[in-house]
Automatic annotation (TrEMBL), chain B:
UniProt domain Plastocyanin-like: residue ranges: 59-167, 240-338, 492-608
PANTHER family reported in the protein's UniProt record: FI03373P-RELATED (PTHR11709:SF394), MULTI-COPPER OXIDASE (PTHR11709)
Protein name (database record): Copper resistance protein A
Family matches, as Pfam families: Cu-oxidase, Cu-oxidase_2, Cu-oxidase_3
Species whose genome carries this gene: Alcanivorax jadensis T9
Signal sequence region: none
Keywords recorded for this protein, A-Z: Copper, Metal-binding, Oxidoreductase
Length: 245, 626
């Protein structure tokens, strides 16, 4: 499964091509950006987990091709009977269109990779942007096979402590419209993930950080996890790097 | 003029770097030859009526790193061209760069084919080709020239033009000195532009922090602070966003010298010096002063104005200003030009003795954008309000976000002109929609490319601008000036064209009326008509707007005009100028901030023969085939 993340990273990189010089008589330029928002090690109960959250875009001011990926992989299992390849990852490819000064809608396709479980494909429809008071918001509705549906809401804020030091709280909630028995997910509120990271920008493009990551499952999903002997709540310390180009 | 400027080490390295690069390209200039040709400006002055200019590349070292520059005759800035009014000049420009290039003669009245804008005037000068420009000189004064291709202007393709008058100079001076201000970056300008598209506040290291908020809590109280911030936070704008590209990447140059290089001009006490300031930077507004020395303006944008004494001036990108100074004492003076956002400065020295220098002033603290810049109602700052607490007027009524739009327009639509003329309308041109007032926002201004619209833009010509209000000394404004000998042309236009300056800071999109150049239709002016152009700045940036080939006669009030080629429009400002469309052809019209221009704040203006149906100019419409 490590191949998945390698593939995704190289796909992200391949999207950045040299920006052509433009004089006003030629076509408008296209740009690209790769943002690895989080690439971090989490000190969790099962062992050290590598987590990532990255996206990339290519295009003009109003229309962009957008690619994102997030996931985690158990690097160093605490118990030897656990499978070191445990990784879950998802990637999303979307067309992103600016419809308001601070807002884009996105239409695309998402694929999940799960160990020992069926991969899932979803159609995605979402809105991304910057809300008043500088909250970065991302809401995505996913419609999958077997009438599965997920609504995911994310918010992030950058609190500047100095010109280079930022405290970044984020929160993400996931809701399912229907049980996904294969994955042990119940309908309703599935989980809330939140994080608080302290980031130092060595340059704007390069910022190591430390922080905490907390994840809690709710409702039917939490019951299923408990029934399987798992812990529906987990907090971990994280250390990682944020970079873009 | 025969003086030996004190070469400091950085300057020597800079010159050597240039010379080596130039030699490498076969231009054959050794550093000794270059030094021998250097005048005060660091650029030689070429005179006559036939000129050979070679556009090439060379390595320069301005910050300690050797970086590629684009050069004219092997140097940055390029040579000063000294012409005579009445002559016809011939300029053979050879392009040795690996890409298309061009030279635009900024502020010159000439046939449009000689104007040097690829795509409008001609095809540009292809690599290895020579283009011959030839045109009669119909004016005099201080101008400049620069590339109009890609971002070559940022990397060094600029130089100054002095045109001596046919008649004797009324402001004879003992010394005549060009002072070219510019901004240099070691970064590739394509990278700067791409960076602004990816993270528009990348270069701003003066952002608000949580500690600023805590300090404001202490000083202003929690409630007031939250109120003050409410509108900024709601609009997702920063009151610290004064410049897109800053001293983080820029080194500000005076005649090609960094502040450490300390460009120096020698004088004898009691002499009368004419300083010709040219802002040849890509993105930087400079606030210029000479502590201890009064300046008297005698010309702006090459055109003589009635003399006005002053202490400080904000010079917009592409503007030029001629001043007289008369230092009497045997002492040195610092020429100090800080950037509008106070992230850096250019500096030089006027001195009777090359061994003497004057102290360099501290930069001012960066100002905060306020009520006025939000376009929530222009206030006439300046002399009359010298004692006013700026902080309190800046932010105190920021919570009036729901202010009655129409009423504000009506009350605050300050105008400097008496004549009401029809607004130009053209159903085929979205720039010319039907209008009830100049401040009304067109439908094209609502969309992802426009992040704000000024609610009550107004007259601000007497406002020195952000950071220069309440200085305690005289700051020169447009309202202080008028063209010498009175209005150079009629005060009465036939019709009025309204353009709103628009943008989206965070997406780094810039446009007129919300329409970028790529989607725009050329604006048509009729040959010899007198048209009023009214600009309304709906952004929080200051924009220097340049119309090629035709004068912009700024209406400064009371029947006075100020003849210009580039007009700086402050945030929240509405101003008007009159244009005589006396030269047929295709002209560029754009914001002279380089990256704004490339992002789309650009129009083609076509001067065409008037339709033959006669009384077109009073219908307020055109473009119909009637």
């Amino acid at each position: 499964m490590m191949k998945t993340s390698t593939f995704l990273l190289s796909a992200l990189t391949a999207m950045t091509v040299a920006t052509p010089a433009w004089s006003m008589s030629e076509h408008p330029p296209r740009f690209s950006k790769v943002l690895v928002d989080q690439l971090e090690l989490r000190d969790s109960d099962e062992g050290t987990v590598l987590g990532w959250d990255a996206n990339a875009w290519y295009g003009g001011d109003l229309n962009k091709l957008y690619l994102s990926t997030e996931g985690e992989r158990l690097m160093d299992p605490e118990h030897h009977d656990e499978d070191a390849s445990t990784e879950s990852a998802e990637t999303r490819l979307a067309w992103s269109h600016a419809f308001a000064p601070y807002w884009d809608w996105q239409l695309g396709w998402r694929r999940d990779w799960q160990p020992d479980n069926p991969n899932r494909d979803w159609a995605s429809l979402g809105i991304q942007g910057l809300a008043p008071y500088w909250f970065e918001l991302d809401g995505q509705l996913f419609l999958g096979e077997d009438n599965l549906s997920e609504l995911r809401l994310e918010a992030e804020y950058e609190l500047m402590l100095s010109q280079r030091l930022a405290l970044v709280p984020e929160v993400e909630a996931s809701f399912y419209g229907k049980d996904d028995d294969d994955l042990g997910i119940g309908d309703g509120l599935v989980a809330i993930e939140s994080g608080l990271r302290l980031r130092y920008e060595i340059r704007r493009e390069l910022a190591p950080y430390i922080g905490v990551h907390w994840e809690k499952q709710y409702g039917d999903t939490a019951d299923r996890t408990r029934a399987a002997g798992g812990d529906p709540e987990e907090a971990s310390l994280v250390a990682g790097i944020h970079f873009w180009f | 003029m025969k003086t030996a400027p004190p070469f400091s080490l950085p300057r020597r390295r800079f010159v050597q770097g240039l010379a080596l690069g130039a030699t490498g390209l076969g231009l054959g200039l050794t550093s000794a030859q270059l030094l021998a040709r250097q005048g005060h400006t660091g650029a030689p002055t070429l005179t006559g009526d036939t000129f050979h200019l070679t556009l090439g590349g060379a390595d320069v070292n301005i910050t300690g790193k050797t970086r590629p520059a684009t050069t004219i005759n092997g140097i940055v800035p390029g040579p000063t061209l000294r012409w005579r009014e009445g002559d016809t000049v011939t300029l053979k420009v050879t392009n040795l760069l690996p890409e298309t290039s061009s030279i635009h003669w900024h502020g010159l009245l000439l046939p449009f084919e000689m104007d040097g804008v690829p795509g409008l005037s001609f095809d540009g000068i292809k690599p290895g080709e020579t283009f011959t420009y030839r045109f009669p000189i119909k004016q005099n004064g201080t101008y400049w020239y620069h590339s109009h291709s890609g971002f070559q202007e940022q990397t060094g393709l600029y130089g100054s033009i002095i045109i001596d008058p046919k008649n004797p100079e009324p402001h004879a001076a003992d010394r005549d000195q060009v002072i070219v201000l510019s901004d240099w970056s070691d970064e590739d300008p394509n990278h700067i532009f791409a960076t602004l598209k990816k993270l528009s506040h990348y270069y701003n290291f003066n952002e608000r922090t949580v500690f600023d908020t805590l300090r404001d809590f202490r000083h202003k109280g929690v409630i007031q602070t939250l109120k003050d911030r409410h509108m900024w936070n709601t609009m997702r704008m920063s009151d610290r966003d004064l410049a897109d590209v800053t001293g983080y990447t820029y080194t500000y140059l005076m005649n090609g010298q960094s502040p450490n290089g300390n460009w120096t001009c020698q004088f004898n006490p009691g002499e009368r010096l004419r300083l010709r300031f040219i802002n040849a930077s890509a993105m930087t507004f400079f606030d210029i002063r000479i502590p201890g020395l009064d300046m008297t303006v005698i010309a702006m944008d090459g055109q003589p104005v009635k003399p006005v004494p002053f202490h400080e001036v904000r010079l917009g990108v592409a503007e030029t200003l001629d001043v007289i100074v008369e230092p009497k004492a045997n002492q040195a003076y610092t020429l100090f030009a800080q950037s509008i956002d106070r992230s850096g400065f250019a500096r030089g020295t006027l001195t009777p003795d090359p061994a003497m220098a004057a102290p360099v002033p501290e930069m001012d603290p960066p100002p905060l954008l306020g009520h006025t810049e939000m376009g929530m109602g222009a206030m006439q700052h300046g002399d009359g309000h010298a004692g006013m607490d700026h902080d309190s007027i800046t932010m105190s009524s920021m919570d009036h976000g729901q202010m009655d739009h129409g009423q504000m327009n009506h009350n605050m639509d300050g105008t400097n002109h008496a004549d009401a003329v029809p607004f130009a309308e053209d159903p085929d041109n979205p720039d010319l929609p039907p209008r009830n007032s100049a401040t009304e926002h067109a439908a094209t201004e609502y969309g992802p490319g426009v992040d704000m619209r000024a609610m009550a833009p107004g007259a601000m010509l007497a406002d020195p601008g952000i950071g220069l209000r309440d200085r305690g000394w005289k700051v020169l404004t447009y309202a202080d000036m008028e063209t010498e000998d009175g209005p150079p042309d009629s005060l009465h236009p036939d019709r009025e064209i309204v353009l709103h300056l628009t943008g989206n800071m965070s997406r780094y999109m810039w446009s007129f009326n919300g329409i970028p150049f790529a989607d725009a239709v050329p604006l048509e002016l009729y040959h010899n008509e007198r048209v009023r152009i009214t600009l309304v700045n709906d952004t929080m940036m200051t924009h220097p707007i340049h119309l090629h080939g035709l004068w912009s006669d700024l209406e400064v009030g009371n029947g006075k005009l100020l003849r210009k080629h580039t007009v700086t429009v402050k945030p929240g400002e509405k101003l008007s100028y009159l244009v005589r469309a006396d030269t047929l052809g295709r002209w560029a019209y754009h914001c002279h901030l380089l990256y704004h221009m490339d992002a789309g704040m650009f129009r083609e203006v076509r001067v065409v023969d008037a339709p033959t149906d006669g009384d077109h100019s009073h219908h307020g419409t055109h473009g119909e085939d009637a």
